[in-house]
Every structure is written in C-alpha cells, then in structure tokens.
Amino acid sequence: MNETKRHTVIDSPYGPLTLVADDGVLCGLYMADQRHRPPEETFGSLDDTSFAEAEKQLAAYFAGELTEFTLELRLNGTPFQRSVWDQLTRIPYGETRSYGELAEALGNPGASRAVGLANGKNPIGIIVPCHRVIGAGGDLTGYGGGLDRKRRLLDFERGTALFQPSPGAAGDAAQRAAVVRAGTS
Predict the structure, then answer these.
(1) Is 130 noted as a catalytic residue in this protein?
(2) Residue 161: how many CA atoms within 13 Å on its side-chain side?
(3) Which pTM was predicted?
(4) Could you list the pLDDT tens digit for every one of the 185 residues in the chain?
(5) Residue 145 and which of 19, 22, 37, 151 are 20 to 30 A apart at CA?
(6) What is the dihedral of CA 163, 168, 173, 176, to 10 degrees?
(7) DSSP type of residue 12
(8) Would residue 69 be called left, alpha or beta, if left means φ above 0 and alpha means ψ between -120 and 50 degrees?
C-alpha cells in the first residue's frame, strides 16, 4: 500500500465520493461505480481528518454557494491529458463545451475523440468539471460517473432541469434538496 496516500469517503447528493490525497494534495475524487476508477488498494490508508478543506468546498458547492474550487490538486496523467483537464477547469460553472470546442482550444481541432478519452480519465471528478463536456449537437454523451449523474450535475449548476429526466429522477431531486438543506442547517 502507498504510505503517502490517504483517502476518505464522504456523502454527497450524487452518492458516496472517495477523496484521495498524495502527500496531502488532492489527487482523486471518485464516484461509486465510476468507470476508470482505480483499485481501492491504491487509495492508501483511510483517514477522515486530512480532507477538511476539500469537504468544506464540496459542501459549499452542493449547497449552491461555491462555483469555483480553490484546492491544490495533483493531476497525474500524460501531458495531453493534463492539458485537457486544465481546459476543463476553464469551463465556467453552469456552462458546457463540446469535445470539439476543447480540441480547438488546445490547437488541435481534429482531436475531439482524444479529448473525450482524456476527459473520461479525469481523476478528480466534479472539482475538475468533466461533467460540463457534451456532444457537438448538445446531447449528453459519455461520463465516467454515469449519464444520469452528469445530467443531474448540469441541471444543478444551471438551476433548472434542462435535460430530459430519467425515470425516478424526481425522487432523486427531492432527495438532493433534502441533503443540501440538511448540510446547511
């Protein structure tokens, strides 16, 4: 087990989130059943005390009080992946970009598929907002945390239900509101 890594699991309106830090710097935020989630044994020791600032900022985000995170991050990936993830942090809260727009911003308009692959391997979901990337036609495509979570995150940030809800989503929205209210009481 990596002794410099620590992790904790916190509740969120989108299910449990596993936060991982390496030498005290956040390097992972993973959802349950997330595609490309590393094996649990790579997360290091369980430590419920080292993530206070990340937990505080995530609680403020879920309460609708924070639109931009200011946490120190350690994004481990290839230079291309890191350039894509940097572009993700530039997408404003409540807005979206297409894979093609990100590829163009990187100076490589033909790389939308590679941008999509890098986006899918983002190790710090929500904080590095890969959920803000959509298909060229405005449709919801690929999300490691699942399309329902992606839709719910985008709707939450926009303050309205713009995307077609899936069956059972009304109950999910009510539950999310209750969790957010409980977190601010």
Answers:
(1) yes
(2) 9
(3) 0.82
(4) 457 899 999 999 999 999 999 999 999 999 988 888 998 999 999 998 889 999 999 999 999 999 999 999 999 999 999 999 999 999 999 999 999 999 999 999 999 999 999 999 999 999 999 999 998 888 888 777 778 888 999 999 998 654 444 444 444 444 433 333 333 33
(5) 22
(6) -130
(7) -
(8) beta
